[in-house]
Fold this protein.
Amino acid sequence: MFGFSTIRLAAYGAIITFLIGAFAWYHHSVFAAGKAAVTAQYNADNALRLKQLAAMQMALNTAARQKQEAIAAMDAQYQQVISNDQKANDAAIASIRSGALKLRKRFTCAAASANPVPKTADSSGVSNGQAKSGLQPADAEFLVQLADRADAVVHQLDACQAILGQATK
């Protein structure tokens, strides 16, 4: 029933099946080894990149902390200047109110003395020759407060410039 050609054909089939199986096994083992090598290289590259990223983050955090400390120091200095200016302003106003400090004596007009201008009947102003001299305390206080506000603006601008200079380093 089975002849020599049938056995030969079955033998060839078995050999071909064996070769296909061996090739598939070899291909699978080579592929698995290649995949393992690629995965190991990928993991090593990722680990290196993560270390580099951590180092960069630490450097950025250190730089940010240093800038924050510098800005905090500038702010403390600014607050001290403002406090000192406020104390000086309060002292000047207290001196003005007590009469111990006068800002400036009023000028007298020499030309008006030589060629006096006639007074009008309803004039109630202060003439050059009256005894009061210097700025009135309310006027002097106003000028000191105005100067203090102007100084505060200058200090604010100086502080802003210092902070911007620190931020752009």
Remarks:
- The chain has three helices and no strands.
